[in-house]
C-alpha cells in the first residue's frame, strides 16, 4: 500500500492543481437547513430517479480527479457526436493507463434510469410553456424562448436552479436553459419517462475540450463519481493521506415576503415518491389545498392583450393602471399654466427735455400733478431756489425720496413790471436818458 501511495503522489506532481468551477454543485440532504415548503421539495428530489446524481459526493483524492479531467479527450463519431471519452488513471501496479468512458459507464456511475425509446416522452415547446404557467410564471409565458427563471415563484425558481446548478457544467446564463435541459424538469414534475441519460451525457461531453481545461475543472462532482467508480471496479486501493476533493453545495435561497399571485403546490406524483414516515413531508401535506387549485389565465391574458385599457374597462390594480395614472399626472403638470408674477412698477425720476419723448403718458400726468401741488403751496420763508439737475443721478431712486421741483419762478419774488413800464424802460435805456420820476397821485 505504501508503494501505491508513493506512486500516486509521484504521478500527481506532474498534474497541475485545477480549480473547480462554480458548477455541478451538490444538493444537501439535511432538511433542517431548508425553510418550508422547500424542505418538502428537496425530499421529493432526493427520492426521485435523479436523487443519486444530485446528492452523491464520493471520498476520493483530488489529484486523481484532476488527472482524469486534465488528460481527458473526446472521440467523435460520423454524426459529430461524442462516442467515448478517454482519460488517464493509475492501475494496481502504480502505472498510468488510458481508460475509456462510454455513455453506458456514465449512466451506470450516476445510476441514471434507462428507458425504452418507445416509452420515452419528448415534451414540445407548448407543453413546457404550459408547465411553467401551471407553476405560476408571471406574467403568463407565451413563448419558451422568452423564459426567465426570475419570473417563477420562489418554490419553483429553486426547483429550476437545483437541476441547472447541480446537473450541468454551466457557470453563466443561469436565468434560462436549453429546451432539452428543461425536459428534465418536465419529467420530474409530471413523473414521465424522459431520456435523462442522453441529456446529461451530451452536456458532460460538451465541456471536455473547453478552452479553460488546463486551469479549471468542469463537472468536478461527476468526474469524482466516475473516477471513484472506476477505482472501485479495478480494485485499486486509494491513498487516504492525500487531500480529498471538496464539493460546493448549492446555496439556500431566501424566501420573498411578498406573496405571488399564484404558486402551484407540489404535485401528488412527486409527493408519492416520498415515504409516509417523513415528518417534513407530513407537515407539508397538512397545508395542501384539496382539490388542487388551478390557475385561470383568461383574465391575465385579457389584461396583457389590452395593456392601455383600450376597448375594456381597466381593472383596478392591473398592470397598466399605475403607468397610465402616471402619464395623466405628468400631462396635467405640463398643461397647467404657470402663475404670472406681477410686474414691479417703475419709479419716476426727473429727466431732462431730451428724454420727454421716451416717457409714458402716465408718467407725464403724474409729473403735471406734482407741479400743480407745488404751485398751490403757500410761500415759505425758508424755501430755497431749486438746484440744477445733475446728470449723475442713479437710475430708479428709492420711492421715499421726493423728486426735486421743476425750475420755475418763485412766488415770493415781486411781480414783473407792466407792459408800459417795460416799453419806457427799453426806450430810455436805449437813449441814455434817465427815467422820469414816477407819477404821483393826489391825496
Summarize the structure.
By secondary structure, the protein is mainly α. Helix content is 38%, strand content 5%.
What is the element layout, followed by pairings?
Blueprint: H1 2-12, E1 19-20, H2 38-46, H3 51-55, H4 62-70, E2 73-76, E3 82-90, E4 96-101, H5 103-110, H6 125-135, H7 154-167, H8 179-190, H9 196-205, E5 216-217, H10 220-234, H11 268-271, H12 279-285, H13 297-305, H14 321-335, H15 361-375, H16 419-431
Parallel strand pairs: 1-5
Antiparallel strand pairs: 2-3, 3-4
Helix pairs in contact: 4-10, 5-10, 7-8
Number of H- or I-type helical stretches: 16
**Uncertain spans:** 1-7, 9-13, 309-321, 419-431
Order of helices and strands: HEHHHEEEHHHHHEHHHHHHH
User: Could you estimate the helical fraction of the residues in percent?
Assistant: 25-40%
Specify the biggest β-sheet: 3 strands, antiparallel
Strand percentage lies at 5-15%
- First-last Cα distance: 171 Å
Morphology call = elongated
Task: Characterise this structure.
It is a single chain. The protein has 443 residues and is mainly alpha-helical. 38% of the residues lie in helices and 5% in strands. It has 16 helices and five strands. The strands form two sheets. A three-stranded antiparallel sheet has the order 2-3-4. Strands 1-5 form a two-stranded parallel sheet. The radius of gyration is 51 Å and the shape is elongated.
Q: What descriptive keywords fit this protein?
A:
two-stranded parallel sheet, 16 helices, 443 residues, mainly alpha
